[in-house]
Amino acid sequence: MNPQAEELNVVLKAEGRVALKLLSERGKSIFFPRKGLVAQGLEARGKAINASIGEAKEDNGSPLRLMSLANLVELDPAQIFTYAPSFGEPALRDKWQAMIREKNPSLGNTEISRPVVTNALTHGLSVAAYLFANEGDEIILPEHYWGNYRLVFSEACGAVLKTFPTFTEGGRNAEFNISGLSAQLKSPGEKKILLFNFPNNPTGYTITEQEAENIVEAIHSAAQSGKTILVITDDAYFGLVYKNGVFTESLFARFANLHENILACKLDGATKEDYAWGFRVGFITFAGKGLSKKALAVLEDKAAGRVRGSISNTSHLSQSLLLAAYQDASYKGEKERARKLLKSRFEAVAAELERHEEYKEEFEALPFNSGYFMCVKLKKGDAEAVRQRLLSRYDTGVIALGSLIRVAYSCLPQNQIAALFANLYAACREL
Ligand SMILES: Cc1ncc(COP(=O)(O)O)c(C=O)c1O
Question: pTM for the full model?
């Protein structure tokens, strides 16, 4: 093992034991190479003659640039064209950390790591998978999950997705299946990796406040009984909650200081939260009871080491644009407008299902209260056949997932919602 990785692991052994226990073999080996090029570049910074940087400069020291690009953006060229650090733009990291606290007031003063910038959430998830998942490790998660987890965790790392039914019985009024989660937690093996995604893709469900407490209790009791637990939260759709009584914080906040046997790892970012899908900016953040500041910094180094070794760094242009938006006085108001628009579509979907009792003959909605999506379960027949029929006869596109149809109402103007469900009903009846 590289001595730089060994140095990091020594810190974890003393000040972040749970993290060392949970790291994969690759996670133990990875480090951010502070002693190589990076260190030499830092030492050269500010020298009159600095021939250490892998970028090109104009004679006046500003980035050498093409005006056909520079003219498109009003930011300082130094915030656009140059490389961002592998850890991410420092001011953006600090701003995002402050925003995590603001959005999750129950964190209080709990120590959390400085977020490391990733190439949006998919990349953040794959950094987490690299750091923690060994070949054959199980990832415990509810059965309705974002299909890309298979590529990220199973195909890339050889981990096994171990699901439990998301809901108890009960149609639209079903509840989150705590006992399914508990049973998986109690299965043999000390190391447990959990993956939560609320608001959820594909169901559009977020746990209620009570369910959040039940989840915390179940995991706490497993930790108490000696399990070592990594709780990964994929908070892609954070903030898009439309009903009272639904849990509005990230579960990360609940696990950040709960038990010495629990490490929390949060993936979030601008993609959905800030309607900036193509910007590719996300963050990975760690916390856990008993982890010192130094131990958290080690995890930042390991994450940034993986960023360095996979994409080197994330778009500086995207990071600078987002930082400017976060500092803009109108940012919060604009986000609220967007959330309200999505909420109005959510309400239109709920009202439409309410209005048409007959739809229940063909399909029933799974519980939904948040996010971009909702799912209906077909009473009979094959979702893929219904999807094909919707395409060929009804000029309507949806996603088929086994016996579920996923509807992304987030992208529908309100005046198309009634027609969508009428078409779905008609297609189901024909088949
Ligand atoms: C649950 C979930 N996580 C992560 C992502 C990926 O986000 P990003 O585009 O930031 O990689 C998506 C995108 O569909 C998602 O639904």
Answer: 0.97
